[in-house]
Specification:
Residues 8-45 have low confidence and may be disordered. The protein contains five helices and six strands, in the order αααβββαβαββ. It is α+β, with helices and mostly antiparallel strands. The strands form two sheets. The protein has a four-stranded mixed β-sheet with strand order 3-6-4-5. A two-stranded antiparallel ribbon has the order 1-2.
């Protein structure tokens, strides 16, 4: 974006609410520029906790169990949680059934978060791996996502895979979390 356009957009943002500025600009290409500039400004000002962003220029991702963007605070501890799967304390699969493995994997994710003092709302990004993925597997997955994050799910990538590390393993979820400085 060129400086004159940035200046004009910043001037609009200063004088109008974001919604009024978007309506004023209509559907022109500058709308995207306005969203980018305002999102950067919001992130810079509200930099104390994890911020999930679902811009109106993208479809409603939370209805599908994830957010488009996660902005982490500048002063935070980053936690990387390895892929959790449907295992018991000995590392054995709790079941040969997808849904039972999925439920246990989410329990294990909760345990991992708690072990480092993180809360579900501290999760910025997850990656989900599903063996032989199909639409039916999204129903129990959606339930577990809602149980853990409600209507504020983190950014996510779901990857269908032919197999995972262990024979019979059907589901895995890893997570990136940020713990705000004031809670560390």
């Amino acid at each position: 974006m060129t400086r004159p356009i940035s200046s004009a957009v910043n001037s609009l943002v200063a004088n109008f609410s974001r919604r009024n500025a978007l309506l004023w600009l209509g559907g022109s290409g500058i709308t995207t520029a306005l969203m980018v500039v305002t999102q950067k400004e919001v992130s810079a000002k509200d930099n104390k906790e994890l911020k999930l962003v679902n811009p109106p220029t993208l479809y409603n991702a939370p209805q599908n169990g994830y957010s488009h963007i996660a902005v982490t605070p500048s002063r935070a501890r980053t936690v990387y949680i390895s892929g959790q799967f449907g295992s018991d304390l000995q590392g054995n699969l709790v079941s040969n059934e997808f849904e039972k493995q999925l439920i246990q994997a989410f329990k294990n994710l909760r345990y991992a978060l708690a072990a480092v003092g993180a809360q579900p709302q501290d999760v910025a990004k997850t990656t989900i791996l599903i063996v032989d993925h199909n639409q039916n597997k999204l129903i129990p997955l959606g339930r577990e996502i809602i149980n853990l994050w409600g209507n504020q799910p983190p950014a996510n990538t779901l990857i269908p895979v032919p197999r995972l590390a262990l024979d019979g393993m059907l589901f895995e979820i890893d997570a990136y979390a940020v713990i705000p400085e004031n809670r560390s």
